[in-house]
Design a protein that fits this description.
single chain; mainly alpha; Four Helix Bundle (Hemerythrin (Met), subunit A); 6 helices; Cyt_c/ubiquinol_Oxase_su3; oxidoreductase; membrane; cytochrome-c oxidase activity
């Protein structure tokens, strides 16, 4: 009994000597906190888009109003080209991420710069579309929903461009590496979300 008690005391003493500081905080999820934060943010943004799509379907399905409003026309071809531009930016961003994972800094910087320029081109074309489209948000319910959905997405593109610009500047300053590239991966998830949402908006608003 004495030998067992002594052995147990030595075991606990060894554990106490091995562990220093406060116990590690328990996590409710194995997902990385940064990744989890971005995913929760994206879920909240999907809900915001859902509210605008509800108004869109109410006008078209419930009220049976023509889309777009009579006497107006949407530039489907220009929007289609702009869609290709935005989707291309997802490809270049993925290329940049894979490049930094391989330690190829030249390709990483080129990919980030190209992604930013493609995103900026998309936003410029969308603003130019607003200038020349021929109707204002207050002209009809259809116009209000059109500007609401595309403008909401444009705001997300603008936010994404600011994030991409910061990542690009850091890339040219020598930040990120094959071992540490989370600062590229997390913004990339947001940008891919923006691209996917535009495909939904374009397909619903311009093509259906």
């Amino acid at each position: 009994m004495e030998a067992a008690s002594a052995s147990s005391s030595l075991h606990h003493a060894g554990e106490a000597a091995h562990h220093h500081g406060p116990p590690e905080a328990h996590r409710s999820s194995r997902v990385d906190p940064q990744m989890l934060g971005m995913l929760l943010f994206i879920i909240s943004e999907i809900m915001v888009f859902g509210a605008f799509f509800t108004a869109y379907f109410f006008i078209r399905v419930v009220d049976g109003n023509p889309w777009p409003a009579e006497g107006t026309e949407l530039p489907k071809l220009i929007a289609g080209v702009n869609t290709a531009i935005l989707l291309s930016s997802s490809i270049t961003l993925h290329w940049a991420l894979e490049a930094v994972k391989r330690g190829n800094r030249g390709a990483f910087k080129a990919g980030m710069a190209t992604t930013f320029l493609l995103g900026a081109t998309f936003l410029f074309v969308q603003i130019n579309e607003y200038v020349n489209i021929g109707f204002a948000p207050y002209d009809s319910a259809q116009a209000s929903v059109f500007y609401g959905l595309t403008g909401l997405h444009g705001a997300h593109v603008a936010l994404g461009l600011m994030i991409l610009l910061m990542v690009t500047v850091r890339a040219f300053r020598g930040h990120f590496s094959a071992e540490e590239h989370r600062g590229v991966e997390i913004p990339g998830i947001y940008w891919h979300f923006v691209d996917v949402m535009w495909v939904v908006v374009y397909s619903t608003v311009y093509l259906l």
